[in-house]
Amino acid sequence: MATKVQNTRRRAERIRRTLKKVANGRPRLSVFRSSKHIFAQVIDDANGHTLAAASTLDKDLKGKVKNGGNIDAATQVGKLVAERASKAGVKEVVFDRGAYLFHGRVKALADAAREGGLEF
């Protein structure tokens, strides 16, 4: 019998496998969400490098964000990662939600990244 952790990893791997098929060389915007913080990275899978990253633990957001585990914090992280990705020359990405549902904080981060100039 598979455990909850194994099912979560299997679901995330399935989503990443599908994304790599449709990416066409675009980097992926990967999201990790914990109960207290949210993290986002723009990853170039061809070279295995992180092009841009942002989280609620960044110095830029420490003073602005009171609680790192809410929708407001996710919105701030989405704007920051979009800004940093555009500085790195990235315009188009594929969105990797991992094993999380596209709802709540994950959706808020995605919407803020779109407003910041990323296309996906």
Alpha-carbon distance between the two ends:
36 Å
Task: Give the H and E element order.
Answer: HEEEHHEH
Residue windows where pLDDT falls under 50 for at least 5 positions: none
CATH class category name? Alpha Beta
Number of domains: 1
Quantity of strands, as a count: 4
Provide mean pLDDT, rounded. 95
CATH architecture verdict: 2-Layer Sandwich
Secondary structure category:
alpha+beta
For the largest beta-sheet, the strand count, sense and barrel status come to: 4 strands, mixed
Percentage of β-strand residues: 15-25%
Q: What sort of overall outline do the alpha carbons produce when their principal axes are compared?
A: globular
- The CATH topology assignment is Nucleotidyltransferase, domain 5
For the largest sheet, list the strands in their spatial order.
Answer: 3-2-1-4
Any idea what the radius of gyration is?
14 Å
Q: Note the total helix count.
A: 4
Helix content: 40-55%
Provide structural commentary.
- This protein has one domain (4-115): Nucleotidyltransferase, domain 5 (2-Layer Sandwich).
- 27% of the residues are buried.
- Strand 2 (38-44) and strand 3 form a beta hairpin.
- It starts with a helix and ends in a 5-residue tail after the last helix.
- The protein has helices at 4-22, 59-62, 71-87, 105-115, and strands spanning 28-33, 38-44, 49-55, 94-96.
- With 120 residues, it is α+β, with helices and mostly antiparallel strands.
- It is globular, with a radius of gyration of 14 Å.
- A 4-stranded mixed beta sheet has the order 3-2-1-4.
- It contains 4 helices and 4 strands; from the N terminus they run H-E-E-E-H-H-E-H.
- The mean pLDDT is 95.
- Helix 3 runs parallel beside helix 4 (105-115).
